[in-house]
Specification:
361 residues; globular; five-stranded antiparallel sheet; mainly beta; 28 strands; 42% strand; four-stranded antiparallel sheet
Length: 361
C-alpha cells in the first residue's frame, strides 16, 4: 500500500495526515485558529509542494507553501495574491489552489473572493490577476452565492495549456481556449431554479466541477439542484441526477484513472443541509451518470448530520485510488479501494472545509 499525504483544511487550522505502511498518523495542527479554505498539492516536482490559503500576519489573506510535507512553511516576502490598485478591491479569501498539468510545470491557479482568477508562473510564490475574466462584460450582473462571490473551482485540460474552465458562485461556468485572453459562459443545460428565467446564459449556482479520467472532454458538475455531465468540455450539459436520493449537494470528484467513474455526496435540500435521508452515503457512478450506487460499507449506519462541502472530497491519484471526505461534524473518512469500503481516519476536528490527498513515492 503506497504512502499518502492527506491535508485537511478546517475552520481552525490545517491538519496533515500521513499513511505509512498502511497506518495513519496526524500531525499537530498548522495555522492554528485560522480558517483554511484552500489547499493544493503540487506533485510535479521531486518533493511535493503543499500550498495553503491562510492569513499572513503581514499581508492578510495569502498563500503559503511547504516543500517538506508541512514541517515548515514559507511566507512570501510580498502579498502572494493581491488585487491591483486600480480594481478598487482587496482580497478577502483564496478559495482554490490548482496546480496546472505537467505541460505547465510552474503554473498554479488561484481562485478568490472577490470572484477572480490569478495565475502563478513560479510554483505558487506570486500570482497575477487574469484581467479578461475580471473585466468580463457580464461581471456587473454576477451575484454572490451563499458563501460569497468567488471563483471556487479551476479545471485545466491536460492536453492543452490554453484551455481552462472555472466555476463562479453564483455566475456559473466560464471557459477560455486562448490562455485567458477571452472567456465565454458555458452553462447551456444547467438550470437556475431560483431565477425568473431558469435557463439563463449565466447566473447558475455551480458548486463543483470534476474532469473524467478517460474522456477529457467529459466533465461532471454538481449544481445548486442538479447533477450534470458534459461530453464536449462544457459547451452543453445533460442532467444525470436520476437514481440519486437528492440531486442537491456541494461536491463532486472523478476517479483519477477509471473512465466514467465519479463520486457525489447528496444533501437533503438547500433548506435542509444534512446528508440525504440523514444517511452518510457516498454515491458512485461507473457509467458516467447512467446509474448510481450507494457506497455504505464502513460508514455510519444511523442518523447522520455531517454535511460535506464543495472542496471536502478528493481522490489521491493511486490505483486503486484512495477516496476521502470530511464533514462539518469534524470527521474525516477514507477508502483505499475506490470507495468500496471506508474507515474513520479522524474525528472531533473543527468544521472541515477542504480535503486534498496525494500518493507520495
Amino acid at each position: 500500500m503506497p504512502d499518502v499525504v492527506l491535508t485537511v483544511g478546517t475552520r481552525k487550522g490545517l491538519f496533515i495526515g500521513h499513511r505509512r505502511a498502511g497506518r495513519w498518523e496526524f500531525d499537530e495542527p498548522r495555522f492554528n485558529a485560522q480558517a483554511v479554505y484552500s489547499i493544493g498539492i503540487d506533485t510535479r516536482r521531486g518533493t511535493p509542494r503543499l500550498l495553503v490559503g491562510a492569513v499572513s500576519d503581514h499581508w492578510g489573506p495569502s498563500v503559503f507553501h511547504s516543500d517538506d510535507l508541512g514541517a515548515t512553511w514559507t511566507e512570501p516576502p510580498r502579498p502572494a495574491v493581491r488585487f491591483p490598485q486600480d480594481t478598487g478591491v482587496s482580497l478577502e479569501r483564496v478559495w482554490q489552489l490548482h496546480p496546472a498539468p505537467a505541460h505547465s510545470p510552474d503554473v498554479v491557479y488561484a481562485g478568490t473572493e472577490p470572484a477572480a482568477l490569478f495565475k502563478s508562473t513560479d510554483g505558487g510564490e506570486s500570482f497575477e490577476l487574469v484581467r479578461p475574466l475580471w473585466e468580463h462584460p457580464t461581471r456587473s450582473r454576477w451575484e454572490p452565492g451563499g458563501g460569497g462571490e468567488a471563483v471556487h473551482t479551476v479545471v485545466t485540460d491536460r492536453r492543452d495549456p490554453e484551455a481552462v474552465t472555472v466555476a463562479v458562485s453564483a455566475a456559473g461556468v466560464f471557459r477560455t481556449l486562448d490562455g485567458g485572453a477571452s472567456w465565454a459562459p458555458s452553462n447551456q443545460g444547467v438550470s437556475a431554479v431560483f431565477l425568473p428565467d431558469p435557463n439563463p446564459e449565466f447566473g447558475q449556482c455551480v458548486h463543483k466541477i470534476a474532469q473524467d479520467a478517460g474522456n477529457l472532454d467529459r466533465l461532471y458538475l454538481q449544481n445548486h439542484w442538479g447533477v450534470y455531465r458534459s461530453d464536449d468540455a462544457g459547451a452543453k450539459w445533460t442532467d444525470i441526477g436520476a437514481g440519486l436520493p437528492s440531486d442537491f449537494g456541494f461536491t463532486v470528484a472523478a476517479h483519477p484513472h477509471r473512465a466514467d467513474v465519479a463520486y457525489v455526496f447528496p444533501i437533503n435540500a438547500d433548506s435542509d443541509r444534512v446528508p440525504a435521508g440523514r444517511r452518510c452515503r457516498v454515491y458512485r457512478t461507473s457509467d458516467a451518470g447512467g446509474s448510481w450506487e450507494a457506497l455504505t460499507h464502513g460508514l455510519p449506519e444511523g442518523d447522520h448530520y455531517g454535511t460535506v462541502l464543495r472542496d471536502a472530497m478528493c481522490t489521491d491519484g493511486g490505483d486503486p485510488t484512495g477516496v476521502y471526505f470530511g464533514n462539518r461534524n469534524g470527521e474525516v473518512y477514507g477508502s483505499a479501494d475506490d470507495g468500496d469500503s471506508w474507515a474513520l481516519l479522524a474525528e472531533h476536528l473543527p468544521d472541515v472545509l477542504c480535503v486534498r490527498a496525494a500518493v507520495i513515492d
